[in-house]
Amino acid sequence: MSEPIRLIILCSWGATSSQLAKKVKEAADKRGIELTADAGGTGEFKKKADRYNVALLEPQVRHLKKEMSKVAEEHGIPLEIVDQRAFALMDGDKVLDQVLTMVKGRREQ
């Protein structure tokens, strides 16, 4: 990877996203991928979006996707909803795969 991945996982208050961010970071470390994974609330993202190059929205706040997509687009950040099954299982590897696909798609544009 040419630049480190700076991921933010968004939920309402940052509680479950903290746990998932930790799992994704562990998965990246195991694979030797340079990644920082932060957790945050959707309101916080509006102020700090410029710090990240990829964003995930947790399933329980999917209703905010349109609003969060506008913020992400302003900063050239791909944003998707976390795979529901991976989220339910707190599967850091599967979420990391999703992030890598998003980053690859961004670089190909």
What does this structure look like?
This protein has 109 residues and is an alpha/beta fold. Helix 1 packs across helix 5 (92-108). The protein has helices at residues 15-31, 42-48, 65-74, 84-89, 92-108, and strands at residues 5-11, 35-41, 54-57, 79-81. It has a 4-stranded parallel beta sheet, with helices on both faces. Strand 3 (54-57), helix 3 (65-74) and strand 4 form a beta-alpha-beta unit. It is globular, with a radius of gyration of 12 Å. 52% of the residues lie in helices and 19% in strands. It is built from 5 helices and 4 strands. The mean pLDDT is 92.
Task: Quickly count the helices.
Answer: 5
Mean pLDDT: 92
Q: Give the strand line-up of the largest sheet.
A: 2-1-3-4
Which percent band covers the strand fraction?
15-25%
N-to-C span: 16 Å
Q: Overall 3D geometry?
A: globular
- Structural class call reads alpha/beta
Based on DSSP secondary structure assignment, what is the total number of beta strands? 4
> Can you summarize the main beta sheet?
4 strands, parallel
**Gyration radius, in Å:** 12 Å
Helical amount = 40-55%
Instruction: Indicate the low-confidence ranges by residue numbers.
Output: none
Sketch the topology as an H/E string, one letter per element: EHEHEHEHH
Question: What distinguishing features does this structure have?
Answer:
109 residues; alpha/beta; 4-stranded parallel beta sheet; 5 helices; 4 strands
